[in-house]
Design goal:
By secondary structure, the chain is mainly α. The chain contains six helices and two strands.
Length: 146
């Protein structure tokens, strides 16, 4: 990230890209506000809010499912490029998106299957394994050498 910032800053300083800064008030949603207000809104919306929603979604979905769902960002980027920019995805890109969707579906289906196998907490535990013999507990632990 720092490399990109330095390269972009150098390109602007050398005149390759127009870079203009103004401290003039900004007209935003029918109101006149200082120029830092839209910047703060961008920070809150693009970083803070999205990060918080991502954390909440991970808690709701679980780490296994959310790791596959996060791959959907690639699918939406391809769809955005297709709709907004008119860049038709190649067949391999469409196949990749389909594989991501199938993977996320398979993971979610597997998660549901594992939940069905879960042990009933009210089940009878009388057949649980017997505790180890008393002489095994009295044996000294092996020494660890560092």
């Amino acid at each position: 990230m720092w490399v990109a910032a330095v390269v972009l800053g150098a390109a602007c300083a050398l005149g390759f890209f127009p870079f203009v800064w103004s401290s003039a008030p900004v007209h935003l949603l029918g109101a006149t506000v200082p120029p830092l207000v839209p910047i703060a809104a961008l920070v809150v919306l693009t970083a803070v809010l999205s990060y918080t929603i991502g954390l909440l979604a991970t808690r709701l979905l679980g780490s296994k499912v959310s790791s596959f769902v996060s791959l959907s960002e690639v699918i939406f980027a391809i769809l955005f490029a297709w709709v907004a920019l008119g860049q038709l995805p190649a067949p391999t890109q469409l196949l990749g998106g389909l594989l991501i969707l199938l993977g996320a579906t398979a993971v979610k289906a597997d998660e549901g299957r594992v939940a069905d196998i879960a042990v009933d907490p009210a089940a009878d535990l009388s057949s649980a394994a017997e505790p180890p013999p008393a002489d095994a507990a009295a044996a000294p632990a092996p020494a660890c050498r560092a």
